[in-house]
Amino acid sequence: MEKAGLVTRRRDPANRWVHQLTLTEDGEAAFHRMRAAAMAFDERLRSGIPEAEIDAMTETLQRLAINAARESRPLRRPGGAATAHGW
């Protein structure tokens, strides 16, 4: 991004391990173009889907993400043997 002229980078004078990035005018313009394109695509994706269905899907996806983030444990068969597949 720096080579493309979208950002400038400099070291933080208070902490030489840290780089500070700043958008250039071209970077700011690119950001706004990408943002507009992303918003138009999102609108197209949601077209014809009632807001209540979008909300329900969002809630379900959030719950799936929470479940996926939990520590995985071997599942047990009804007889008590552990399996990786849960059978």
From TrEMBL:
Domain HTH marR-type per the UniProt entry, residue ranges: 1-66
Tree of life domain: Bacteria
InterPro entries the record matches: HTH_MarR-typ, WH-like_DNA-bd_sf, WH_DNA-bd_sf
Entry-linked PROSITE patterns: HTH_MARR_2 (PS50995)
Membrane-spanning residues: none
SUPFAM superfamilies assigned to the protein according to its UniProt record, in alphabetical order: Winged helix' DNA-binding domain (SSF46785)
Name of the molecule in the record: HTH marR-type domain-containing protein
Organism: Acrocarpospora pleiomorpha
